[in-house]
Specification:
single chain; about 140 residues; mainly alpha; Arc Repressor Mutant, subunit A; 2 domains; 7 helices
Length: about 140
């Protein structure tokens, strides 16, 4: 089935959605920030994200570094966060549980969900988080 061409209004909205998506890599949140109401965002954010135009625009924005230094720093931080997000959610056979936990810990640090405690305290928290992930993973359907 062929997709109908996007109107100029649709393109403007999709561009805004793409910029918002790169802030946290969450289609629902991006749709809300772009102006959708919650009920509509819940139903259509995934469909919007999967539009070929949106996928191409996100890829383009990911590859295009900003002009000024402070924006470039934010761009690089988003790229690191994106990589950690992808690693934390990679369930393929080439990924390990410890790699997912390490990536999740990196994301937690970025979002200040964990502090920079002394080494022993950090190790205890990390072991606790690993155990929690293992228990969660055991509950998942195979």
């Amino acid at each position: 089935m062929m997709q109908q061409p996007l109107s100029q209004e649709d393109v403007v909205f999709c561009d805004l959605f793409c910029q918002e998506y790169l802030k946290d890599f969450n289609a629902y949140n991006a749709a809300l920030r772009a102006g959708m109401i919650a009920e509509v965002a819940m139903e259509f954010s995934t469909q919007l994200f999967n539009l070929p135009y949106v996928q191409q625009k996100i890829d383009e924005l990911k590859r295009t570094p900003p002009e000024n230094a402070s924006a470039r720093l934010g761009f690089n931080q988003r790229k690191v966060e994106q990589l950690l997000w992808e690693l934390a959610h990679d369930r393929s056979e080439k990924s390990s549980h410890s790699a997912r936990v390490t990536a999740a810990m990196g994301l937690a640090r970025i979002h200040k969900l964990v502090g920079h405690e002394d080494e022993a305290d950090a190790q205890t928290k990390q072991e606790s988080l690993i155990q929690m992930f293992k228990e969660f993973a055991q509950k998942l359907p195979a």
